[in-house]
């Protein structure tokens, strides 16, 4: 009985955590107009410190892909908040989609 209970709990935790993840991804997938406008301002500033804007224009991706790529830029030393990153990825996913 105890085993069955913990199994049920584990399954519940699995579904709940996945539901939360889906909600988060769902929010990411639909950037607001404000985020896109903010991204348009941020990219020419934040993304030209190490390479020209043409480097940014050379790449096409969806939102998740731009998040992955900007995470990589962070490892190179790029600095932006998570909110700014969402704005940048939202803007680029719209203007430079996969
Ligand atoms: C601190 C320096 C730095 C900043 C700031 C920076 N980048 Fe980069 N970027 C790099 C380096 C180094 C490379 C080449 C190595 C690589 O691709 O990871 C690169 C390469 C790229 C590429 C080409 C990747 C490919 O696979 O062809 C894109 C696109 C790009 N950056 C986008 C961005 C965007 C968008 C921003 C702004 C959020 C940004 N970068 C800010 C350092 C930076």
Short description:
With 98 residues, the protein is mainly α. It has one domain (2-95): Cytochrome Bc1 Complex, Chain D, domain 2. It contains five helices and no strands.
Features:
single chain; 98 residues; mainly alpha; Cytochrome Bc1 Complex, Chain D, domain 2; 77% helix; elongated; binds heme C
Explained architecture:
The protein is mainly alpha-helical and 98 residues long. It has 5 helices and no strands. α2 packs across α5 (82-95) and α4 (63-76) packs across α5.
Please render the helix and strand layout as text.
Blueprint: H1 2-29, H2 33-46, H3 53-57, H4 63-76, H5 82-95
Helix pairs in contact: 2-5, 4-5
Bound molecules: heme C.
Heme C is lined by residues 46-47, 49-51, 55-56, 58-59, 69-70, 72-73, 76-78, 88.
């Amino acid at each position: 009985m105890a085993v069955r209970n913990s199994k049920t709990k584990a399954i519940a935790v699995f579904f709940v955590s996945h539901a939360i993840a889906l909600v988060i991804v769902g929010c990411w997938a639909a950037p607001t107009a404000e985020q896109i406008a903010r991204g348009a301002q941020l990219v020419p500033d934040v993304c030209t410190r190490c390479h020209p804007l043409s480097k940014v224009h050379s790449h096409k991706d969806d939102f998740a892909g731009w998040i992955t790529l900007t995470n990589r830029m962070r490892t190179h030393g790029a600095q932006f908040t998570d909110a700014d990153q969402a704005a940048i990825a939202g803007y680029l996913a719209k203007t430079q989609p996969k």
